[in-house]
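The following record pairs a protein chain with its ligand, adenosine-5'-triphosphate.
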Amino acid sequence: MKDKVPAGKKEKETKNKVTTGLKTPPNFIRDIIEKDIRENKNQGRVHTRFPPEPNGYLHIGHAKSICLNFGLAAEYGGLCNLRFDDTNPIKEEMEYAESIKEDVSWLGFDWADREYYASDYFEQLYQYAVQLVKEGKAYVCDLSPEEIRAYRGTLIEPGKNSPYRDRSVEENLDLFERIKSGEFEEGSRVLRAKIDMASPNLNMRDPVIYRILKATHHRTGDKWCIYPTYDFAHGLSDSIERITHSICTLEFEGHRPLYDWFLDQLNVFHPQQIEFARLNLSYTVMSKRKLLELVEEGHVTGWDDPRMPTISGLRRRGFTPESIRDFCERIGVAKSESTIDIALLEHCLREDLNQRAPRVMGVLRPLRLVIDNYPEGKVEELDAVNNPEDPGMGTRKIPFSRVLYIEQDDFRETPPKKWFRLAPGREVRLIHAFYITCVDVVKDEKTGEIVELHCTYDPETRGGWSKDGRKVKGTLHWVSAAHSLKAEVRLYDHLFTKAEPEDVEEGSDFKAYLNPSSLERLTSCRVEPSLKNAKPGSRCQFLRQGYFCVDSVDSSPNALVFNRTVPLRDTWARIEKAQIKIEK
Ligand code: ATP
Ligand code: MG
């Protein structure tokens, strides 16, 4: 299959603001790290972290962050921590933390013994907060959440000081201690940093750093009834772990002054926060909240539904970790938002699987074909190469007999122009087998539906080649009816019909664009007998059809279920061809 991306092509945009990937994509974070190493910042150390909140399963956007954090650390001989940002006891669960670990490992990254939790730092974070209070840089505020919002001002108006802003250090210390010991109700008081209510940056207008939440935390139980906010916990956790480069997505750019403020006021180790544009992918959604909605409302079968952009969904669909890493490398790292065409992800997968997926034959919509001049009861074992891209993968035997199945689509009773497949009187090649000629068509008397074809074969064409040099244009895949295995095949299409489903009109919902045909189940497929013991999750190419994998949840040796990972048709290669034309 020819679907290589020419190296060094200029980045271009297609319609829908969808950008193409590059072979040597820009990565400005690499440039920053190299400069820091040259200047011996942090003694040349590179230490990153991947900080998921365990409130959902990871998606392909997280994969970009994982590849970036773990990848850069590995590239510069550094370390990358896995840190669970578990500061919100309400939405977080251990199930999510477990799935996150599985996904990061599967992607091929190793955090060794550096599995950390922000909740491990609760005591230290509390001490930092006490220090701010003692230095007059934080105060207990009794305004209600609504009042705090109202006092905050807007982008064009400054905020108003809280009436509690000038409490004495002693009073603040006493109140904060009592808040911690559970004396006050949720929402009645918070601890706020004392910065500047007139700051043009709203994040700097005395942000909340601790709130009361009388909830059981999945790791610390009921030990705490106050929890730090993300802004307070995140930078200080980075500092505690002596992270050098704290890489996050663009929406945190406006939080950086606050990130820096806490570190400077507390005079602790100061990591550098660097923001990059998050990954957006066409025809899918990427927010955990929306993905959770799809799961909870039953639009998909679960977080690992093969149509989901989650790592577990992609894994079950048959994606390889290598293809996802390749994709993340090709899309590059930039500072401006864009949407990547999902066809690029599929293209990366095809390139990988083309090299290593064994070729087999499977007939998705079977049509019975009888070879009239083939002896009844005879079975021949034919040789088939497992992968023309890799002779090392060897060959296998496939049985041939008088009754076969071919694809319904490969026959036309009245063929259109340029039809090279089977039709009455036409001769075609059966892959690895013989030339056959169609001599008769049997139809259902009532429905007129074609139920069986009769053919003759040429015994001199064994292996699919004719000594007399006569050529045939069509080559079909097939299975021997008696030897084939029944299977279910699940065909997937985009989850949404709109390239940017999150881009919806007022009052409309992203779910209005769910693709009603995103899953098609074919239950009477036939596959070659070598797949009898195919392991769950194992991948193959069904010749002429695409790449498939054995479903890891629903398949069993007696009831095989295959997922179509991706068809062979490569829309990405087409987009690119069109672009090469435009460039010329
Ligand atoms: P979501 O918006 O989907 O809920 P999140 O940012 O809340 O995601 P986190 O668990 O906090 O999810 O994310 C962990 C890390 O992954 C963060 O550093 C975050 O910036 C990064 N990340 C999340 N989504 C993307 C994305 N689409 N592209 C790149 N990085 C992402
Ligand atoms: Mg987040």
